Amino acid sequence: MSVSINKNLLNQEKLIQLAKGAVVPVLLLIFWEYMSRQSVENAYAFASIEQMYHALLEVIATQELQTSLVASLLRALTGLAIGGVLGFTIGALMATSKIVDVSIGPIYHIFRQVPLMGLVPLFGLWLGNGDTAKLFIVCLAAFYPLVLATYESLRQVETKYREVGDVLKLGRVQLFFRILLPAALPNIFTGVAFALAFAWLSTIGSEILFNAGSGLGNMMMNAEVAARMDILIVVTILIGIVGFGMNLLLSRVGRHLFRWRNLRAA
C-alpha cells in the first residue's frame, strides 16, 4: 500500500514539474501568436503557428528536412568522434609526459584562444567551400574541450591513487589504464558533453558560413534567401530540440555509466 502511495506521489511531482516547465513556453507561444496578428510587417517577422505548422508539413513532404537533419547529425557526430579521439589522445599525452606538455602545450593554449569562426576564412582558402572545411571546423570544436578536460582531469587525480600504483609497482602504461584513467573518466565525460555541444553548434555555424551541400544550416540560408520566415523558424526550433535531446541522452548515459559514484558517496 505504501509503495503505491509513494509511486502516486512521485507521479504527481513529475506532473507538477512538467506543468511548471511548460508555463514559459506556452506564454511565449501566446505572445508569438499575438505579435503575428498585429500587422503585415509582424505577420512576416512573426510567422503564425499555423504557418509554421504548414511549413513543417511542407519540408517533411519534400524530404528536405529529413535529408538536412541526417546530414547535420552525421557531420556533428563524425566531427565529435574524430576531434574527440584526437583531443583525448593529445590531452592524455600532455598530462602524462612532460616533454609533450612542454612541446605541444603552449601551441595548444595559443590556438585555443583564437575564435574558431575567426579561422573560417583561412579554412576556406585551404579546404574550399565544401564538406571538408565544415568537418574540419567541427573536429576542432570537439578537439579543444576534450584536450583541456582530459589534461586537467588526469592532472587532478588525487595523490593517494598514484601512491597505490607505486605500491603495486605498476608501469606507466598500467598506471594510466588501471589508476589514472578510471579516476579521471567521470570528469573527462563532462568534457565529452561540452565537446558535443560545441560540435553541434559549429556544425550549424559551418553550414551557414559554407553554404554548399545539405544540412540544417544550409536549409536556414535557403529559407532566408526565399524569404520563408516560417521555414526558418521551424528549422531554428528543430536545431534547439535536437541539441537539447543529444545532451539529455548523453547526460543519462553518463549517469548510468558512473552510477557507482553515487553508491560510493552513500
Question: What is the correct CATH architecture?
Answer: Orthogonal Bundle
Residues in helices, as a percent range: over 70%
Average residue pLDDT: 83
Number of strands: 0
Unreliable residue runs: none
CATH class placement: Mainly Alpha
CATH homologous superfamily name?
MetI-like
| CATH fold naming | MetI-like fold
Distance between the termini: 27 Å
Can you count the helices?
12
β content, as a range? under 5%
Instruction: List the secondary-structure elements in sequence, H or E.
Output: HHHHHHHHHHHH
- Structural class, by secondary structure, is mainly alpha
Largest sheet: none
General shape: globular
The Cα radius of gyration reads 24 Å
Number of domains: 1
Can you characterise this structure?
- The structure is a single chain.
- The protein is built from twelve helices and no strands.
- It is mainly alpha-helical and 266 residues long.
- The radius of gyration is 24 Å and the shape is globular.
- The model has no long low-confidence stretch (mean pLDDT 83).
